Structure formats: structure tokens, C-alpha cells
Amino acid sequence: MRVSEHPILGALPEAESVTIYFDGQPIPARAGEPIAAALMNAGIRAFRTTAKRHEPRGIFCAIGRCTDCMMIVDGVPNTRTCVTLVRDGMQVETQHGLAAMRTEEDKA
Amino acid sequence: MREITTDIAVIGAGSAGLSAAYQAASAGADVLVIDENHLPGGQLFKQIHKFFGSRAHQAGTRGFQIGQELLERVQKSGARVWLDTLVYGIERDCSLGVIHDGAHYVVRAKKVIVATGAKENYMAFPGSTLPGVMGAGAAQTMVNVNRVLPGKRVVMLGSGNVGLIVSYQLMQAGADVVALVEAAPEIGGYAVHAGKLRRAGVPILVGHTITRVTGDGQVERVEIAQVDKQFNPIPGTERVLEADTVCLAVGLNPMTELVWMAGCKFCFIPAFGGHVPMHDGNMETTVPGLYVAGDVTGVEEASSAMEEGNLAGVCAAHALGLLTDEQAADKKAEINARLDALRAGLFGERRRTAKQQQLDAMQAEQGGNDHVG
């Protein structure tokens, strides 16, 4: 839910609206905001599941430290969605477990 | 791999780092500030409450306005600021491994100031990993910076200033704070912040803790209970609150990874959030040329972080010969007087004692040399 009016900060400043895709579903976002904020605004709270117990995880620290908000973003796993900004057309997917370690051949 | 040389590299563009950069660049140093985030200011821009202290500490001004002014001063000072830039490592000679704009750099600076700040503590209880349980600072970032409500009904755990202030700010943004739960028998933070919550009708439950959180894939119910003098929950006192969000305001710990990596010696000071780097009165660590400032030296608050940043910036510039002994002494005296004022009084005393302990540890480490400052 958006904080559109705020007693100290005033009205929400205008921002270009863009669309990101969460597991294929379109989500409206404000240009310049982190992916996690757009998902939170859309009411999405589970961002990934854990490797061993397959439990859901969401935002914890929101400053890029805890890695609880990692998702697959435009095909790149382990992306911290709280510090990665949205881009129009971005594909954001729920991440299950950890991504496979990249080999030197993959990087080449 | 490209190599960059500079007089002073500052890691972290928050309260301490920006202050250090301003002082050093104003003294004529070539300064490079590096920060991982896409915006400078660290955590200042989510502080929408008025700061405390004296006029010298901009009391009565809101945190984000202080951040804006600091940023403008830094921009005018000539310091370079690299954002979206990661410092992934530091060598024993204080050269930095940096990724900037997709490219790998080695930054070699004559002096390095680490101002990496702190991160929030976690507290484990059944259900504490459910989506909807988050740091109080995370919720604060979401409402004040990203302008998104993390939930509608919030239970806050911890009554220090972070817990009190963020509860109020969540209400300002339109959420209900169902309860503020505190295990200690008394409220931890300032009475003025607690008073605002009380007047708004938020129950502040001291002598209570969260025993578990339940819900189907996210927070739905929060079970709280009274605690005994050993902080153990008292069976039979449990009750359940309907809530969709739990915020943990249970302290912070310094982000010391780079300082450890550089080989600095540490001391353990619980009042400062755990292991903190030893430093002298010039903010220099046991590694010559490596300075620290702000919450990385021990968790305090933004005003102290700015003053420690000022001190580190002045001392690093002085060490490079950019300030005369007299100029440096004058500036240091002014800054130290302001720091002393911030570490005075009922709430400041604990921090003053902790800082003295840290300085004493450094002195002992350096062989009892009685000239520290």
C-alpha cells in the first residue's frame, strides 16, 4: 500500500510509472524504487523459499545486508531486491533455494 | 583492472563518511567517497523526526534535512562521490578492491576512513522467519524512503529510541501499531518519544516478549507473554494479537567486515553492539593510516557519527600535512567539545564510558603510551 499523503513528507512526488513482472504477473512500480518496494506495495511478501526446509522468506533488513530478499531478476539469481532498482519490463521470479554455483566456463 | 590513487578514500557516504569527506576535502585533500547505495546519505534520509541535542547539533532539524545540508556541503567541498560502488576487500596495505560501473578498480589512498555504519540485530523465536517479520529500520526505510506501508497492523518489539520512533512513524504513514512489547521492566528510549505513542493510545507492554508468530506463509498472529526477572516467559500469561507485521527493534551491530579484513585489533564492548575496532583520539586504528568513524566504531546515533566523521577527516588531513598543528588542534578541540556534550547526561553516560573503554584498550595495545590524542 502506497503512502500517498504524509504529515511530514507531504504528497508522494510524481514518478514515472513502469511495469515489472512477478512470476509473469504484471506489477506497477515507480521508476527509481527498489524491486522490493514495488512488490511490497502489491501485497507480495514471500520472495523466495529456503534451500533445506523450503520455507518462505521476505524482506528483513531492506538495506542490502541480510540477503533474505534474494530473487531471480532478469535471469540473474541471488539478486538483492531491496537494493536493486526496477526497470520497465523487468522479470522478477521467486527463487527456490540457492542458485547453482557458476563455473568459469559459464562466465566466459 | 584500473588503478586509482587519491589522498583519502572514505568508505560509506552516510553521516560519518560525508562529514569526514567534507572536512578532508575542505582542508585541500583529494577525497574519494565510495558507497554501495544508489543514493548518498546512509540512513539519514529515513530519519524524519527532529534531532535532539544542542543548537550546534542542529537540534530541532529533521534528519533528512540534515542529510540534504551535509550533502550540499560535500558537493561544494570538491570531494568525489562514487555511488553504486562496492568495496569488496581491503589489503593489509589499505589498498581497496572496488567494483564501479561494472569495472574492477584498485584504489590506493594515503589514508582510508571506514565509515560503514551498522546493521540491525535479529531475534529468533518460533515464526521469526515468516514474511512480515522485519527490522524496525527496514520498515522505516519502506515508509519514509520508498513510501510503501509494510503492513496494516504492526507489533513492535523493543522500546529503545528506534522502536519508539519507528512505531510513531508507521502510524504517521497510516499503519496501526497494535502494541509495543519490551522485555525490560522500563522503557528504554526517551520519554518524549514514548509519550507520543501513549497519547496516540498505543499500549506499551513492558515486562513482555514475543513468544511466537504464526500464520499461513506470512505473519497473522503474534503471541506475547509476560516475562520473569530472568526474562523467561511466564506460562499462563500468553495472549494472541492479530497483526500482519512484526518489527524488531532490538539493537544494531557495527559493520566491521572491512576493518577485520584490514587486520585492525578489536575490543568487545556490549554497549557499542559487540566487537569494535580499537582507535585512538584521532580515530586511527591499530593499522597505521586506517581511520574509523561513526557506528562502525560502536553503535551510537547520527549526531555522534557526524562528529566522529569530522574528527577523522580533520586528523587524516592533518596527518597528510594539509592542516597545521594549530589548525588541527583548534578543530579537534571544537569537535571533541561537541562529542562530549553528546555523550553527557542520563542517556549519554553509558556511551561516554564505553568510548573511554575503547580508547583505553587502544592505549594499552600501544604499550601504555600516555599520549593518545
From TrEMBL, chain A:
It comes from Butyricicoccus pullicaecorum 1.2. It comes from the Bacteria. The keyword Oxidoreductase applies. GO terms for molecular function: iron-sulfur cluster binding; oxidoreductase activity. This is 2Fe-2S ferredoxin-type domain-containing protein. Pfam families: Fer2_4. Keywords: Oxidoreductase. InterPro entries: 2Fe-2S-bd_N, 2Fe-2S_ferredoxin-like_sf.
From TrEMBL, chain B:
Keywords: Oxidoreductase. The keyword Protein biosynthesis does not apply. The keyword Oxidoreductase applies. InterPro entries: FAD/NAD-bd_sf, FAD/NAD-binding_dom, Metab_Enz_Cyan_OpOx_G3PDH. Gene3D superfamilies: FAD/NAD(P)-binding domain (3.50.50.60). One of its GO terms (molecular function) is oxidoreductase activity. Residues 7-309 form the FAD/NAD(P)-binding domain. SUPFAM superfamilies: FAD/NAD(P)-binding domain. This is FAD/NAD(P)-binding domain-containing protein. It comes from Butyricicoccus pullicaecorum 1.2. The lineage of its organism: Bacteria, Bacillati, Bacillota, Clostridia, Eubacteriales.
